[in-house]
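Give me the 3D structure for Oligopeptide transport system permease protein OppB.
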Amino acid sequence: MVRAVQQIFIIFVLILFLAALPTIISVDPLSGSLNWSFESLPQVYGEFISEIGEGSLGTYELGMQTRPIAGDIADNFFTSLLIVLIAVNASLIISLIFGVFISRFRVTKLFGAFLNILAAIPDFIIIVMSMILAVKIYKVTGIRVISLRPDGGALNTWFPTVLAAIAPTLYLFKLVSVKYYQTSGEDYIKTAVAKGMGLNYINFQHVFKNLEPFIKSELVKVISLAIGNLFIIEHIMNVSGITKFIFQSSGVQPIAIGLFAMLLISLIVYISNRLIFYLFKRGFIYE
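Predicted structure for Oligopeptide transport system permease protein OppB (287 residues):
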């Protein structure tokens, strides 16, 4: 319990410190050197706590307007949550299906080769190339697959969701594939094959059970890949997500609220991943 409180406190301090960086860092116009105003940090922490204590999330600048964060954050939060939630869970399911349960089929080898090619390309380049491809498709066919308008509805969310899923899928599929081939060479797998057990039974009851701890240990990294791409995707595709409070503001309050919201999104997605494992084991795995 004490350790958990310590971790929460450290996270709180670090997030507020990151949010305060634009405030405490300045450039000397004469020498061009950076000046750090650490003495203003206590005031930053005090103002944030006092704003929250009054039941307000503060305000942020949107163009020439000053708007309350509480009035806009709900829609932006759920937009970002939906993108990351679907992207990470889809990457988890796709990696398990192609990496374990249908790994022996030719289509999986083709899928793996395609992902290996994508893995050699930086995420930012993939995102930009995908947008260019979407524009080309619209010019040739007249079918609009993306929208750069914040009020574009499904067109403004489904394509960002696909892009956000690319990096987690690349990482997870490679991890699952490598672990699958390592596990397949273990003695207990050879014994199960020698006993005449079916391949599906072995994959479900033996291989998956040994892969599960490795995948669970990498979930935090997988989510961080999706969150990192979310910053890029929402910014260049004009998605009204939670990163709006971080990119379009220089004040401590909106940046801090945006970062805390990102942390909450990560936690919700992590819980959903663990829930998928739990439901899968309850439905298909015999303990």
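The two ends are 31 Å apart (CA to CA). Let me know if you want a second pass.
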